[in-house]
Amino acid sequence: MKKITVQANINDTIEKVWEYWTQPRHIIHWNFAIPEWQCPKAVNNLQEGSTFSYRMEAKDGSMGFDYVGTFTKIVPKSLIEYSLEDGRKVQITFKDHGGTIKIIETFEPENQNPLEMQQQGWQAILNNFKQYVESH
């Protein structure tokens, strides 16, 4: 299966980047691709074999979905892997370059939307994350 990769360099510490990526109180502030959407609820138990659920929805209430999966591998401050409900796999690596953290996110695309659209959406969320971390 084809995979798509997005990445960003975050100018902060690995401790802060890891916390903001994994803690629901932060996830709700950056986990959406466009300003018209939001992530009003995030629940996770960051342990291998545990699940997570992030609510993604349009601010006007016209549509939404739950982004749900199961963590399959976690290496603190280094790696998160999970499987989505439909079986697709996602891998996120965190590489500490002393003051800059490189996040590389690789995922198996779904079949409903064009690959370019999926890549742009995931990159937009990662860009939101970078902006959120660097401004807090």
**Strand neighbour order, sheet with most strands:** 1-7-6-5-4-3-2
Distance between the termini: 38 Å
What is the CATH superfamily? START domain
Helical content, roughly? 25-40%
Low-pLDDT sequence parts: none
Shape: globular
**Proportion of residues in extended strands:** 35-45%
The overall strand count is: 7
Radius of gyration over C-alpha positions, nearest whole angstrom: 14 Å
CATH fold group: Alpha-D-Glucose-1,6-Bisphosphate, Chain A, domain 4
Query: What pattern of helices and strands is seen along the backbone?
Result: EHHEEEEEEH
Q: How confident overall, as mean pLDDT?
A: 96
H/I helix tally: 3
Describe this entry's structure for a reader:
This protein is an alpha+beta fold and 136 residues long. It has one domain (4-135): Alpha-D-Glucose-1,6-Bisphosphate, Chain A, domain 4 (2-Layer Sandwich). 25% of the residues lie in helices and 41% in strands. A hairpin with a 4-residue loop joins β5 and β6 (89-96). The mean pLDDT is 96. It comes from Aquimarina celericrescens. Pfam families: AHSA1.
